């Protein structure tokens, strides 16, 4: 998989810190930057290893960030477990397809997904006091197809999928946003773990990078969560700034990988 220089290892920890910071600050979005950071910021040019490695690193970071939400009572365990289990099956299938997909095409589609993420992040969130809460079989019937679809996307691209899991949980259960954010971390962890296992069985996970990413992710998550409490409503402006950053990275990835696709055609 190649030897990492000392500078690259430092950049990996910084990348993990940025991912964890975003997760802690705005409740998502950071995992979508994990792949381009490792590819272009660190300079680790093996897309399939990058996807498998960042999937595990983001999963472990999500599990770490789940604990404070659990203590705060933000996790709704029944819908969280159903979403995680069903979605993990979808993630396993998506990862199998992603492993054999051509690298340039995979990264090009990944960049398109990043643009979709930006659209989700910039959409105004309508907070209504009249939320239809679903439970029992109706809740399960709504969760299963949504979680399966989100899991497929998560496994294929090697992302946490939090930006899709949160609205998916709200749609399926009617739970408040803060509960959806807390509950989504279980699925982010489950999807990433499933994807990573699939890649690891093919030797496509760099364990040193996982450890260094996780160190940065835990540190960044702690700082981001503390800052989120202090900033309050100003997080909306930070979310928009982050969305613009994701868009710029996505355009760069489209340009680079469109050229690669032309070379292969």
Our measurement of the CA-to-CA distance between the termini, rounded to an integer number of angstroms, reads: 27 Å
- Structural class comes to mainly alpha
Cα Rg = 17 Å
> Helical region count?
10
Low-confidence parts: 127-131
How helical, in percent, are the residues? over 70%
Please give the domain count: 1
Order of helices and strands: HHHHHHHHHH
Shape: globular
Summed over residues and divided by their number, the pLDDT gives a mean of 83
Largest sheet: none
Strand content: under 5%
Number of strands: 0
Characterization of the model:
- The longest helix has 30 residues.
- This protein is 81% helix and 0% strand.
- The chain has one domain.
- Helix 3 packs across helix 9 and helix 7 crosses helix 8.
- By secondary structure, the protein is an all-alpha fold.
- 50% of the residues are buried.
């Amino acid at each position: 998989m190649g030897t990492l220089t000392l500078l690259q290892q430092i950049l990996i920890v910084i990348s993990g810190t940025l991912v964890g910071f975003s997760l802690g600050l705005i409740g998502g979005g950071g995992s979508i930057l994990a792949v381009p950071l490792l590819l272009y910021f660190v300079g680790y040019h093996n897309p399939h290893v990058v996807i498998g490695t960042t999937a595990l690193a983001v999963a472990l970071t999500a599990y770490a960030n789940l604990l404070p939400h659990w203590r705060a009572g933000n996790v709704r365990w029944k819908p969280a477990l159903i979403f995680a289990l069903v979605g993990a099956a979808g993630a396993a299938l998506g990862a199998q397809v992603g492993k054999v997909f051509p690298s340039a095409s995979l990264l090009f589609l990944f960049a398109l997904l990043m643009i979709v993420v930006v659209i989700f992040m910039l959409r105004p969130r309508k907070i209504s006091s009249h939320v239809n809460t679903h439970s029992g079989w109706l809740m399960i019937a709504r969760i299963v197809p949504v979680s399966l679809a989100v899991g497929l996307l998560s496994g294929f691209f090697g992302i946490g999928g939090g930006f899709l899991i949160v609205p998916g949980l709200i749609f399926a259960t009617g739970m408040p946003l803060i509960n959806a954010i807390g509950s989504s971390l279980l699925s982010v962890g489950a999807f990433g773990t499933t994807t990573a296992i699939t890649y690891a069985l093919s030797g496509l996970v760099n364990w040193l990078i996982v450890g260094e990413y996780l160190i940065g992710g835990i540190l960044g998550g702690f700082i981001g969560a503390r800052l989120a409490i202090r900033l309050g409503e100003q997080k909306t402006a930070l979310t928009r700034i982050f969305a613009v950053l994701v868009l710029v990275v996505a355009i760069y990835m489209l340009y680079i990988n469109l050229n690669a696709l032309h070379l292969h055609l």
